[in-house]
């Protein structure tokens, strides 16, 4: 009986995953995208070790070094990518800013995925009025733009509690706002998969054996619905990073003392046509490449984790 319970999970065949892996190795663009993304993640995680300067050092900001051009223009080997208007080494703040942007993106999407998966499982498995109620809530949430909700909430928070309080809690607030506004994407996707999975024989067998609904949902159905979630997870991280960058550019994101890629772009935009173009262009290129490779990985996962594509 114990072995029978283990067999109730409808496993993804080994041949399918070997097919996916061989397809990935043969796709040079996907491999290049993954290599670049891993490069970003490693350097972001190791920012304190690989950054030329410590951004927390009081001597890091030196106005005497302000707006120094990149080393290939100014021949100043101290600052590879130049400095910003506050005299900060641009390479150092970009490394720390990338780590901060990735942290916000991943944490926000984890909140989205946790809420969306739980709500989608309950809605799809329960059906009836529970399903209708939860999906109407999702429809209402989707009717509001993420940026609109974020702008309104962040503006109200700053008005009620002050900018000083907001700057202390900026990272947590951004994660919560971005995370709590995008969960319907996961919920609707999981619900659609659950509606198909719960009609299969292994779910009927689990019910006959008296296994609880909670165990059926999370132990047996959920593992077989995660393929589309991986695609959404990858794309949503990119979307969350873009949302944070947009909010920071509007002055509602991370403060200048905790630079993210968005706040660096915002701070450098005013110098774009004043001769110090690198202050805005280099962080912008860093953000564009990061978003591009994540979207390319998401597109590849969508194409190769689609069962119809595999069957063809």
Automatic annotation (TrEMBL):
Q: Which biological process, per GO, is one annotated for this protein?
A: transmembrane transport
Among the entry's GO cellular component annotations, what is one?
plasma membrane
Q: Which Pfam families match?
A: BPD_transp_1 (PF00528), OppC_N (PF12911)
The compartments listed are:
Cell membrane
Write out the transmembrane intervals.
Answer: 29-51, 100-123, 144-163, 169-190, 229-256, 276-298
Its membrane topology, per UniProt?
Multi-pass membrane protein
Which UniProt keywords are listed? Cell membrane, Membrane, Transmembrane, Transmembrane helix, Transport
Residues forming the ABC transmembrane type-1 domain are 98-298
Q: What is its main location?
A: membrane
**Does this UniProt record's set of keywords contain Transport?**
yes
Could you say which protein family the record assigns here? Belongs to the binding-protein-dependent transport system permease family.
| Entry protein name | ABC transporter permease
State the species of origin: Marinomonas transparens
- Source lineage: Bacteria, Pseudomonadati, Pseudomonadota, Gammaproteobacteria, Oceanospirillales
């Amino acid at each position: 009986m114990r072995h029978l319970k283990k067999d109730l999970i409808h496993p993804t065949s080994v041949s399918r995953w070997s097919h996916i892996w061989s397809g990935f190795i043969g796709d040079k663009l996907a491999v290049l995208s993954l290599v670049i993304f891993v490069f970003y993640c490693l350097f972001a995680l190791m920012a304190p070790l690989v950054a030329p300067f410590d951004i927390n050092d009081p001597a890091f900001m030196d106005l005497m070094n302000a707006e120094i051009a990149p080393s290939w223009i100014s021949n100043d080997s101290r600052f590879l990518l130049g400095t910003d208007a506050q005299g900060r080494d641009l390479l150092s703040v970009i490394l720390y800013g990338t780590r901060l942007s990735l942290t916000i993106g991943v944490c926000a999407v984890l909140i989205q995925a946790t809420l969306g998966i739980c709500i989608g499982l309950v809605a799809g498995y329960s059906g009836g009025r529970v399903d209708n109620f939860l999906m109407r809530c999702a429809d209402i949430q989707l009717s509001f733009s993420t940026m609109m909700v974020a702008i309104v909430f962040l503006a109200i928070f700053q008005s009620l509690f002050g900018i000083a309080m907001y700057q202390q809690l900026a990272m947590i607030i951004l994660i919560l706002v971005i995370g709590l506004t995008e969960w319907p994407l996961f919920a609707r996707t999981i619900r659609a998969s659950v509606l198909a999975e719960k009609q299969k024989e292994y779910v009927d067998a689990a019910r006959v054996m008296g296994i609880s609904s909670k165990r059926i949902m999370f132990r047996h159905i959920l593992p077989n619905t995660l393929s589309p979630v991986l695609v959404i997870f990858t794309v949503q991280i990119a979307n969350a990073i873009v949302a944070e960058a947009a909010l920071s550019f509007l002055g509602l994101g991370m403060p200048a003392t905790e630079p993210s890629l968005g706040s660096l772009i915002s701070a450098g935009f005013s110098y774009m046509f004043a001769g110090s173009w690198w202050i805005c262009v280099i962080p912008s290129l860093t953000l564009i490449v990061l978003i591009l490779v994540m979207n390319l990985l998401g597109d590849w996962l969508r194409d190769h984790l689609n069962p119809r594509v595999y069957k063809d």
